[in-house]
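Ticket #4471: structure output looks truncated?

Reporter: J.K.
Steps to reproduce: submitted the chain below (453 residues) through the standard prediction queue, then opened the result file.
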Amino acid sequence: MEQVKVFLEESEIPQQWYNVLADMPTPMSPPLHPGTGKPVGPEDLAPVFPMNLIEQEVSTERWIDIPEDVLEKYLIWRPTPLYRARNFEKLLDAPVEIYYKHEGVSPPGSHKPNTAVAQAYYNKAFGVKRIATETGAGQWGSALSMACQMFGLECRVYMVRVSYEQKPYRRLMMATWGAECIPSPSDRTAAGKKILAEHPDSPGSLGIAISEAIEDAVADDRARYSLGSVLNHVLLHQTIVGQEAQRQLAKIGVYPDVVMGCAGGGSNFAGLCLPYVRDKIHGKKIAVVAAEPTSCPTMTKGPFAYDFGDTAQTTPLLAMHTLGHDFVPAPIHAGGLRYHGMAPIISHLVREKIIEPRAFDQIETFSAGIKWARAEGFISAPETNHVIAAVVQEAERAKEEGKKKVILFNWSGHGLVDLAAYDAFLSGELTRYELPDEEIERALKALEGFPKP
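Returned output as attached by the reporter:
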């Protein structure tokens, strides 16, 4: 009988997070204060985040210990299994071995609790009583709702309106874990009211929801803001995924030729790939591929520029690939990938040509996701289908080249509460969509006058 899964014992779970900033080949451009144009300091971020997370955000220590209380919660679903997709390999009929980390086994069904639990822990330790956040498809909002419940914190989630309407079960998960979920744009904040006055039918975006959540948090001295992707400390917490994968593949004597993940803000992609990026920086030959939607082609078509992380321009200016902070992506079902920017760490590594971005259309991604479900059984989140499309593409390339490849990717979450998206695809309601160049040019006007990295 052929082996399908590789497990780690609970005692083998990594005890530290990996910080890629210690191994960056070139310095990153710092976040800038929009008022002074100078690099932001910890005191600038203090009204938004607890100081213990700010310290992680700016840390250049290579390894950071995972607190015992966080490890205790991780053990509810970690270490996650590493699978070999033998049935998908047969379907593709290409010279490839395909391995994937199954992050859908967490209680909310995605990788997001890896940082949600850590952030809830540090907020609790700092004395915070309530956390405000945003969510796109609902994976992050449901994960943070669970984590806040674990540590006795109140939680308020601003959910992008189109996802709030498309994914009712995600908001019910948040309610079950005791959180308040509000469709964004809303009339709760000045940022939301401004958007609604200009665009009453706005589908919302992650940039708008971030603005609302930050405004909510800084108005309450009991509260802080929490972000589920993009920031350095978020990517740091996710590196437990890639470290586990390295230990699991070492058990069977395998090292991948290609590592892949879908990327919206960059967290699940970074979680699997950054430990391998470290190997690549130190000389290992390995391809690192990020898959994004053609409807929101941040890395493949957006410039590397200083931009705000939110629509209302309340964050520091971040050096990143961006489509402009007022860009509102088309209402595709992969809500977690509808963000105008990309994590500064990932953007920097794309600029250094260590990471290769590729874009995929929603018809291509759902077609791949259907093939995957029929071969492997698991139904993927619409976001995860983007990396499965990339795996299919890589397998076709291997076949054309006649070259054997080992592929590793992050199966970032299940799609069991995203079945309306599958219904739309199977009934022929979805169409191909690629963001027109003129729309990108219009959106990038928002960057005029900003400093250049």
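Triage note (M.O.): checked the attachment and the full token line is present. The chain has a mean pLDDT of 95.
Status: closed, working as intended.
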